[in-house]
Amino acid sequence: MNLKNSQWLPILGSLVFFAAIAVFFTLPVFTENQALSQGDIIQYRGGAQEMYNFQKSTGEKVYWTNSMFGGMPLYQAGARYDYNFLQQIDQHVIRFLPRPADYIFLLLSGFFFLSMVLFRHWKYALLGAVMFGLGTYFFIIIEAGHNSKVHAIAYFAPLMASILLIFRGKYLTGLVLTTIFMALQIAANHPQMTYYFGFVVLFYLIFELVRAIRQQQIPHFLKAAAFAFAGLVLAIGINSTPLLATYDYGERSIRGQNDITLLQGAQAQGLEKDYITQWSYGVAETMNLWIPNFMGGGSMEPDTYKTQTRQAIERNVQTEEEYNYLMQVYPYLSTYWGQQPFTSGPAYQGAVVVFLFILALFVVRGRYKWWLLAATILSIVLAWGKNFMPLTDFFIDYIPLYNKFRAVSSILVIAEFAMPLLAAIGVYIFFTDAEITHDQRQKYLLFAGGGTLAFLLLFYFMAPAMFSFGTAFDMQLPDYLRRGITADRIAMFRADTLRSLIFGALVLGLLLLWHFSKFTNRTIIVLSIALLSLIDLSGVNKRYLNAENFIPKAWVDNPFPTQMSERMLRIAQQGNPTVMQIAHKIPYNQAVQQISAQDPGHYRVFNMAGSTFNETNTSYYASSIGGYHGVKLRNFQNIIDVYFSNDSVQDQRLGVRGQMQNILHMLNTKYVIAGSNQEPQVMPNPQALGNAWFVPQVQQIDNADQAILAIGSIDASQTAITATPVQSNNLGADGSITLTSYHPDRMVYQSSNTQNGFGVFSEIFYDGGWTATINGQPTPIIKTNYFLRGLEIPAGENEIIFTFDPPVLRTGGVITLISYAILLAIVAYWAYLFYTDRKRKSNQDLDN
Question: Do 47 and 59 form a contact (C-beta atoms < 8 A)?
Fold first, then answer.
């Protein structure tokens, strides 16, 4: 990528402009010492608190936590790994702005780099960056706290740019950059996004291969593909520790093999299809890419959108009691009428982007058009999920790894990358391709511009007759209320349809001005289009990321307070939903914190006052039966599904009704919190079996279905269930096992028993790194009671130590260092060639 000296100043100015945009969207971070309150990050903080506490007190890395779901690895929940040099550069150099401005800047600047590789001119690169980097979906997931997702997406563009450099013959430069950006994307730790981007690269390679065959350039294609593959291998090597750990965990998680078959609809391997496709985009909902409020926006839009609903209530209520009741229900009447269970907002790509994308289909020729169009179509159709099951079934059943990921609607990120890229290419060719005649350009504008505007205008009038603008829930509402919410949805649709029409018309007008030589300065025209796209996308993005999402930084750092301050009360009373939610749970936080302070031992708490398996308030202060995490251990998920499902029909079919208590006793659940978050009721559980205990009887059951059902009915203090034969039939149960030292990765017990015995430990069985020693001698850990640990313990006084030291971490560390050494050698060779080439050219200049 050779640039003229005149371009460097505009390039620097563009980067400053991107930083200014990032600051604009996150201004409270810079001016008011506030921080973005992100729901998923709040949940993460609660689940990771135990890890933070021990890392701070010991200085050691922690890879296991008992704070969630009885116990689980931290590989996907904040674990730190050795030799993460590139991640440090990413965190402190590349993402130099405070969060979340850093992600916005990275989205913009990364696509700017890709566009510079393609166009070698800053104005087209700036246009492409704005059209991609300000996509509404990215701002929605930033607000929600999906940081790893947006982080991975932000590296799509620079990674693609690096691959393009390889296929343009810049083999070593492309190799180095591909390795670096691929490594950074993997390190962002969102395998689903990295996997989806693989489809983009695959389509590119297919069309490059077709071109190579046609132009008889197979050797170049094979060489370039080899360099790209080498970059991938090196990037994987650099990230080998987290990748190996994640793979190892994945095999034992809900993404892996399921050893039970008694749950209806359960998959033997991977996630269930209903779970994968739960968040499926409706076919018509795809119009959200063009018209943001086509489907009513998000599930919780502001009351300003529901004026006709409110008027319907005020005109039709008969009594004050009825009015008060409906006004309580009113905020929860959703304007969203799509098919997803709920949504934070539409995946709006921009009226300007869609218009230019359609224009590009006429203007662009060759492999780039077919590559990006094919990727876009695949993305949209796969996002339909359960609404287009023939293709979804095929991908789930036959495409490797596809069944490991849920929320198929998120595959729209492919379209959200491909559409602005093709749109930017279209603008570049429209202005620079001398082979396009005046008449052809005019025809393209007529078909693309006139056609899209005519479609939107027709849609504006015809859509209310084409769509119901209603949901199944609406049928439960009184007729007047149903008519009111429908009218509001139609009003939202029409307002945003008109909005998209106006932006499309303005872009068309600018292109026509240039085409008819009314204004010939291409730079101003292109920058004006970029400005329109900026205004278009910013206006929608501010609906979902604005000042209301920022709260005092202290409350973000500690989102589980136990005291209500006057400031918090004041802001909550003003209606800030985030602060209201934090304040609402203060009484519950007080209850858990008090339990932890009065009883500092190692035990578990069962939260029945809230959503047990979707909260980490409990985990912040104590080890919890529940938690919040997208990838639970398979054995514990099966326990949840069998014993905590609250499905009376299933409980009766399996014969486990009323047996949940037995599981709580085994898990050493010393406290149950009932009631509500506002009025929690702490109930001690005197039947909790403790950290470990001896049993006089071991029953061998080989079948996992039988084992998971048996543990609900046995007397766990007297009997243990294993699939492994126990050597001694004369087991003593008169001894004791006491936990003497607790660390998440190392637990020390002291046992005392007069006979050989079998000990059951109230810890989750995980054979991917836990080892046990008795008096320093390695001892096999036996899978007990389906999901716990057991040991055969000799008579006498014994020291028992459980240690979590996964071999994959050591193996990964070695591979990581080797990969870095190879990368440094390549960089050194690349620098040597660059230096010698510059020296050769300098000598030639002197000779001349």
Answer: no
In the numeric block, which tokens belong to residue 733? Answer: 């149960």
| Sign, CA torsion 614/619/621/622 | positive
Dihedral angle over CA of 534, 535, 541, 545, nearest 10? 100
pLDDT attached to residue 455: 94
Cα dist. 760→71, 757, 784, 823 in Å?
A: 16, 10, 7, 48
- Contact between 795 and 732 under an 8 Å Cβ cutoff? The reply is yes
**DSSP line for 9-34:** HHHHHHHHHHHHHHHHHTHHHHHSSE
Q: How far apart are CA 759 and CA 462, in angstroms?
A: 72
The residues that bridge with 800 in the sheet, in sequence order, are 749, 774
DSSP sequence for 158-197: HHHHHHHHHHTT-HHHHHHHHHHHHHHHHHT--HHHHHHH
Question: Per the structure block, which two tokens stand in for 727?
Answer: 């050597």
Report how far Cα 35 is from the mean position of its chain's Cα atoms: 20
Q: Is the peptide bond before 100 cis (omega within 30 degrees of 0)?
A: yes
Q: Which of 120, 131, 114, 112 is nearest to 530 (CA)?
A: 131
Report whether 76 contacts 629 (CB < 8 A): yes
Residue where the block lists tokens 């969630």: 68
Nearest to 236 by CA among 824, 699, 843, 820: 820
How many other CB atoms are there within 10 angstroms of residue 494's CB atom?
A: 17
Contacts of 347 (CB under 8 A, 6+ apart): 135, 136, 137, 140, 281, 288, 289, 409, 412, 416
- Residue in this structure with the two tokens 């499902």, named with its chain if needed: 645
Burial 271-301, CB ≥16 within 10 A → b, else e = bbbebbbbbbbbeebbbbbbbbbbbbbbbeb
Q: Which residue matches tokens 């049993």?
A: 695
DSSP string spanning 286-318? GGGGT-TTTT-SSTT--GGG-HHHHHHHHHH--
CB 423 within 8 A of CB 353: yes
Which parts of the chain sit beneath pLDDT 70?
Answer: 1-5, 264-270, 728-730, 841-848
- Residue 446, phi then psi, degrees to nearest 5: -65, -50
Q: Which tens digit of pLDDT belongs to each residue from 763-814?
A: 999 999 999 999 999 999 999 999 999 999 999 999 999 999 999 999 999 9
Closest CA to 245 of 64, 52, 43, 49: 64
Query: HSE on the CB side for 535, CA within 13 Å?
Result: 13
Give how far Cα 281 sits from Cα of 85, 338, 636, Å: 39, 8, 30
**What six digits make up the tokens of 603?**
């035990």
Distance between start and end Cα atoms, the chain: 26
Which two three-digit tokens encode residue 538? 């910013």
pLDDT at 842: 64
**Separation between Cα atoms, residue 21 and residue 131, nearest integer Å:** 13
Round to whole Å and give the CA distance between 91 and 807: 27
DSSP 309-375: HHHHHHHH--SHHHHHHHHHHGGG--S--SSSS--SS-----HHHHHHHHHHHHH--SHHHHHHHHH
AA identity, residue 288: N
pLDDT of residue 845: 56
| Residue 217 CB burial class (10 angstroms; 0-12, 13-18, ≥19) | middle
Side-chain-side CA neighbours of 122 within 13 Å: the count stands at 16
Rg of the chain, C-alpha, whole Å: 30
State how far the Cα of 243 lies from the Cα of 266, in Å rounded to an integer: 26
Helices and strands, number each (H, E), in the chain: 34, 18
User: β-pairing, 604-607 with 669-675?
Assistant: parallel
Please tell me the predicted confidence (pLDDT) of residue 76: 82
Q: What are phi and psi of 313, to 5 degrees?
A: -65, -50
Question: Which ranges in 599-633 belong to alpha helices (H)?
Answer: 617-621
